[in-house]
Write a structure and sequence with these properties.
- This protein is α/β, with parallel strands linked by helices.
- 46% of the residues lie in helices and 15% in strands.
- The chain has ten helices and nine strands.
- The protein has a six-stranded mixed sheet, with helices on both faces. It has a three-stranded mixed sheet with strand order 5-7-8.
- α4 crosses α9.
């Protein structure tokens, strides 16, 4: 099965592994709604690929991803329609994570902001580089948790730490991420080719049906809560996008950029 027509992500099949790479070097691997649509498409299509057992999501360069691409919205004539459509694309993309039958393995190669951090909670396995840190500045932007993080973060790291991250804009270092079970291993970037990828290729050779059904059983009690969290978050996110707090945050963001 070939993966064609991807323009905003690099999607490559390497044996039994589908590799999805964030690559937007001019904007620290920020993702726009076209990248979200492609990510959702890749995670949906791979369900029908019997040759693939593991999906790896990673970034190219210094950053994993700096999150959502915020620039350019001031030039959109109909913001209401744009936000509504973008919200639906985002919701569908998150559902593709929830519905993916393959093992999702996230390799965080550097700083991870916003969506790069929240998809960790939807991944089956996450390893991060020593240089990585995690940030979800939703409170600062006048927004709310996304990508089911209102459910996954308290479940993974406890309510107090989840609140620090999701509401109070506190950064999580690689060591803290490991301590709070947000990632299961920390790796050296120098060992990507010699240690990390060989280990993932080894995992990819495990019996595929057993892997798929084991993932289904692990997620059986989580699925309903994830779908509900995604639905509720997207409803509130759309409201926040029209709110005064977000508008003010975007004005401040534009002013900072104009001074650079």
């Amino acid at each position: 099965m070939a993966y064609l027509g991807f323009e905003h992500l690099i999607v490559e099949k390497e044996g039994k592994i589908l590799v999805i790479k964030f690559y937007n070097p001019a904007k620290k691997n920020c993702l726009n709604r076209f990248a979200y649509k492609e990510l959702g498409r890749a995670l949906s299509e791979v369900n029908n690929d019997e040759e693939v057992t593991i999906v790896v999501i990673t970034g190219i360069g210094e950053y994993f991803t700096a999150g959502n691409e915020l620039s350019g919205t001031d030039q959109i004539p109909d913001l209401d329609a744009y936000f509504k459509e973008s919200n639906e694309i985002f919701k569908n993309m998150i559902n593709s994570f929830i519905n993916c039958t393959k093992l999702i393995f996230t390799l965080v190669n550097g700083p991870s902001i916003g969506i790069g951090t929240t998809i960790v909670g939807l991944s089956d396995v996450t390893w991060c580089a020593e240089e990585a840190h995690f940030l979800t500045p939703f409170g600062k932007l006048g927004l709310v948790p996304e990508a089911c993080s209102s459910y996954t973060f308290p479940l993974i790291m406890g309510r107090s730490k989840a609140t620090e991250m999701l509401l109070l804009n506190e950064k999580l270092t690689a060591q803290e991420a490991y301590h709070f079970n947000f990632v299961s291993r920390i790796f050296k970037l120098s060992e990507l080719d010699s240690v990390v990828w060989p280990k993932i290729r080894e995992y990819a050779e495990l019996p595929p049906n057993s892997m798929r059904e084991s993932k289904r059983l692990i997620n059986l009690s989580l699925r309903e809560n994830l779908i509900r969290a995604n639905d509720e978050e997207c409803v509130e996110l759309l409201k926040r996008l029209h709110g005064e707090e977000f508008v003010l945050a975007m004005i401040n963001f534009a002013n900072r950029k104009s001074k650079l």
